[in-house]
Amino acid sequence: MVKFTKSNLQKLELLFKEQEYTIRYEKGNFQSGYCIVQARKIVVINKFFDTEARINCLLDILSTIVVLENLMSEQSKSLYKVILKSELNRAQVA
């Protein structure tokens, strides 16, 4: 499980940057708290969200995009493996 810390948020943001996504924190009327502009690889997240909500949004988005591991640094790969493992554990429990 990924802890909800600013450090982990920055690591997730780096992972998205390596996947050539731009993350923007702005205000808007998002029903889910975020918006993805697929054609331009832009993610817009509600700027009023705290660290935990931002991480949850990024994790939700991460499960819907195609992730290319060859673009990742070693730090991002290890974080991604932890995320995949926690998602697998959560799916087995449910």
Describe the protein's architecture and organization.
- The chain is an alpha+beta fold and 94 residues long.
- It has a single domain (6-93), classed as Zincin-like.
- Helix content is 48%, strand content 15%.
- It is globular.
Distance between the termini: 15 Å
Beta-strand portion reads 5-15%
Structural class: alpha+beta
* Major sheet size, sense and barrel closure: 3 strands, mixed
Q: What order do the SSEs take from the amino end to the carboxyl end, as H and E?
A: HEEEHH
Quaternary structure annotation = single chain
Query: What's the overall average pLDDT, rounded?
Result: 91
Number of domains: 1
List keywords for this structure.
single chain; 94 residues; alpha+beta; Zincin-like; 3-stranded mixed beta sheet
Give the gist of this structure.
The protein has 94 residues and is α+β, with helices and mostly antiparallel strands. It contains three helices and three strands, in the order αβββαα.
